[in-house]
Amino acid sequence: MSGSTNINVSHQHTNQLIKLLLALNQLIEKMGSEYDHYKIKLEEIATRYSQGKIHLAVLGQFKRGKSSLLNALLGARLLPTAVIPLTSIPTYIRYSDQPYIHVTFAHNKAGDTFASDKPEELVKFLSMYVSEEANPNNVLQVESVELYYNNDILQKGIVLIDTPGIGSTHKHNTEATLNFLPQCDAALFLISADPPITEVELDFLRQVTTRVNKIFFILNKIDYLTTDELNEVQQFISTVIRDKAGVSEDLVIYPVSAKQGLQAKLSNDPALLKKSRLDVLENHIIDFMSKKKEAVLQKSLPKKSLDILLDLELQLQLSLKAYTMPQEELQQKLLIFDHTIQQSAQQKTFSSDILTGERKRLLELLEEQAENLRKKARNYLESVAYRNLNEIGRINEDDITRAFADAIPEFFERELGKMSLFFDNHVVQVIEMHQKRANEIIDSVRKAASDLFDIPYIPHVSISGLEVTKEPYWVMQQWRYSFMAVPEELIDRLLPKKIRIKRIKKRIDRQIQALVLNNVENLRWATVQNLDSTFRTIMMSIDEQFEQVINITRKAIDIAVERKQSHSQEAADHIDHLKHLIVALSEHKKNIASFINDAATI
Q: What pTM was estimated for this model as a whole?
């Protein structure tokens, strides 16, 4: 009962917030065109919330019925169920009025798009890129697949992400999936009763729980179980997950029959849908999405709205001062203020130079990590090669190449995850330190405006995007595993065995060296690109915020001065208008601040 009460209170607060923002926008409309950008900012925040997506990664061991479950949720046979996906990339399933598929390829090759309102045509096209028969070992170098479809669960803001199955022949798919998971909001972890849960799944689950906050456990194929068997399997799985996977939160397992659920939707059979229990799972997913978006709204939107109001208040206060201050005094203060802005701009430039130095330091650290990885990779590949030699009792370069093909992707995907985590942590520390310094510089302009023009001091608050707008991305790597020179093998056949073995070992050593250099550089380059992108983003953000504070302060005064000089007869009326707006704005501030305090108690 208390949970229901909390939900109702939460919705009441949301409705109150929406009313507050509507009233605030009506007030801003009365202020004049120079204040329109504040109204646009508020509308952008609300729009970003409403358009926010919840990204659900669908996880499962190969042959557990992952594709069948997705088809059931979509209500159509869109994903191939009789083949093994081979591409080590996910399929993003998004909403669109008109169904279509878009395939992206590596190396900037032109993508392929296919539109049809017939599911059988869509699944046929999709199979061309994700099936073993049409695209063995991803020879087509598919980088991403996006399926757009008109479906209720997608329309509500959910993006389903079909990840490569664990336990397939491509072991590195597991590592790639683990690297991807932290970007997602939640995961659907699919198991079934045949057998209930394997050690491979448990090992994978232990790692999943450290990377994603919300996991829906789904027991598929319940149509093969009696009621007693279902209860027994659920109890067994719950115990195993708690004891062996370390899941300590309240554990809920959603039993479904994806097969029956899809049949029910295709035949419009409510009784069969209820029997499949798919409707229960869908309702819980939608409820989770609704609550998560509600939480983001109540946590982020009021604070960001208040930040905008503070900027607006500062501009109004400065405009009022510019209207009421004697012209000569105003010009003197503006000269001092311009000097402060120039000093702050110099400090910002100096701070940017420091950030550039931090980037250089991180790149040097990356080179150290890369060198350590080269040594580690060399030792690892040597062990693979010579272990293979010992096992087969003879030297066969084809066998060693196949061993490299199996070992390299898994090894480097794992190292990619470690390196990404390592540098993510370091970059966060650098950015936090630099952002603090940048805020101090930006705040110095506001402080100077407050002191010079004798208005209330309003500190700077950095504005960032809403959490729900993030868009997960999959890091696609093309690991190299072969540099064989076939002509040399032909020559070897004519040589004595001792010399032949010596030449082959030397070739293997050269191959290992080339593989290490190529794959480590592949990984290093991806990390460099991420670092550069991050640093560009933070520097652009600081520049934008600095420009914003100049617009709020110096340009606000310029507008007031111009109006004062060209419309002196209207100055008195405008002063009264500004005073009225400041009082009204103050009341809005109190209401939103009160909303923030009340929302914190829900």
A: 0.68
